[in-house]
Amino acid sequence: MASQSEFRPRRQLSIAALVLVIILLFVVASAIFIYTGGYNVGADVPHTKLVFGILEEIRDKSVESHARNVTAPSNFNDPRRIPAGAELYNEMCTGCHLGPGIERSELSQGIYPSAPELASGDDLSPAEQFWVIKHGLKFTAMPAWGKTHDDELIWDLVAFIRQMPKMSAAQYKAAVASAPERHEQMMEQMPGAKNEAGSKPPAPGTKAGGTGVSRPN
Ligand code: HEC
Known about the structure:
By secondary structure, this protein is mainly alpha-helical. It has two domains: 2-35, no CATH class; 49-189, Cytochrome Bc1 Complex, Chain D, domain 2 (Orthogonal Bundle). Helices cover 49% and strands 0% of the residues. It is built from nine helices and no strands. The protein starts with 8 loop residues before the first helix and ends in a 28-residue tail after the last helix. The relative contact order is 0.10. The site of heme C (HEC) has 24 residues, from helix 3, helix 4, helix 6 and helix 7.
């Protein structure tokens, strides 16, 4: 009995060496595979199951963790968000995500991973949807809309995409048609927006209502 639990340093050493050699071989094989261009990055050939599984897990866990700090505004349920979001969605999202009564576009057929049809429902929470729309998703065609749109407009989109699965093609069209001017107005007020004559912002180095004295050059 005692011999079974005997410490065998040589045997343990050879097992450790074998594990090391296997790891080393794996690293070398992976490097050869990557550097010889072995992996097909073409969007018309699906990922291997392993790569797809890993990327999916990375995305799901990342979205879940980053969206924890996102809280919806208190007026998230304001019904005016629906038509505002509908217009934005129709303008910016249908090319990839389609919508009620919208035919498959060439874009939607060519991208990989494909964009989910959000009109069929989406199991992300509002905070997760907000985060994905604002920041986009690396390694996919999903853009970061937060670069050009403020949070209010993104919440409009979230409010709308949560309603869309309940909409017929006719209701979708009606929602888009009833959109307020709000989008255009908000875009104009956003930083970096083109300023029309008469709405010039104060020049850098001057304060609105200040002395008007500019910094010496
Ligand atoms: C150029 C194509 C493209 C456009 C335009 C686009 N998306 Fe996406 N979107 C994608 C792709 C592709 C994915 C899925 C990526 C993946 O598989 O992880 C995605 C994912 C999403 C998701 C996450 C869905 C889920 O369940 O994981 C949301 C929400 C979303 N998009 C909303 C929008 C909204 C709202 C717009 C418009 C403002 C938009 N997208 C515009 C390509 C696009």
